Amino acid sequence: MHNIRYRRVLITGLCFFLILMTMATASEQPKEVSKVVPNPDVNATQPSDPGLAWTKIPMTDAVTGEQFSIDQIAKMGKPVLIHTFAVWCPTCSMQLGESEQMLTTSPDSFTIVGIDIDPNENQNMVKKHIEKEKYAGHFAAAPKELTRGMVGTFGTSFALELPQTVIVCNKTVNHLGSGLFRAQTLKSALSQVCA
Question: Name one Pfam family in it (predicted).
């Protein structure tokens, strides 16, 4: 009896450890854009694909208090680099740092949008995190309907694996995937999808 319990605990612990290690492993190079969702009407009032309605959902910038949507940012003409994150996620902070590094070498070439999709976090927590780390861009705690919309477009793993990276460019929404993408990889991905 004791042996069976010990094995169950050991197997459960090993499975948990493997899951954590898998989540912590950062992807360096996407082999290709993992999912490209065409959005020919991104500049129109209503997107033709109802699965992309989340691009129109208003968010409040945690630092400035201004309202914005991904669609509004995309209409400014620059590529939009979206990262999902949570304030407790070290890989997310590393990802935002990589994008920040790329932005300092190529200012005004794209816009960063950080979306905190942890339902237990709020605008104040996001604001403190962004001000502490001094990231540039637009950052917000995701409204529930935005998270649901993104999960509807990209699948359930989108909300379970952090960070996720999405590029909006040339009227398309491009999901790069989860994990850490280095600055050079992001630069290559932007060149690929925005060509």
Answer: Thioredoxin
Delineate the domains of the chain, giving CATH numbers in brackets: 27-193 (3.40.30.10)
Closest CA to 138 of 57, 69, 36, 50: 69
Polymer length in residues for the chain: 195
Please give the residue that has the higher pLDDT: either 111 or 43. Answer: 111
Closest listed residue to residue 73, CA positions, set 52, 99, 55:
55
How many angstroms separate the CA atoms of 148 and 195, rounded?
30
Q: Quick check: 3 pLDDT over 90?
A: no
d(CA 169, CA 187): 13
* pLDDT given at position 17: 46
Model confidence over 20-39: pLDDT tens digits?
444 444 444 444 444 444 43
SS3 147: helix
